[in-house]
Amino acid sequence: MSTKFIARIALSLALLSGSAVTLSACNTVRGAGQDVSSVGHNVTRGATATQGAIDRHTGVSP
């Protein structure tokens, strides 16, 4: 077997393992939706906090 073939198999196994871990963390489609929603809310909170800090620092309000 060539090293290219072995590397390809190793990469495939790593991707499959990563996918299995990721999918098992959510358990359901609803859980995955909640995870994505949570990330969106955190991004919104971070953007709001950053905008507030910029407004306080510059003295400009929207």
UniProtKB/TrEMBL annotation:
It holds the Pfam family Entericidin. Belongs to the EcnA/EcnB lipoprotein family. It comes from the Bacteria. This is Entericidin. Keywords: Cell membrane, Lipoprotein, Membrane, Palmitate, Signal. InterPro entries: Entericidin (IPR012556). Residues 1-25 form the signal peptide. The keyword Transmembrane does not apply.
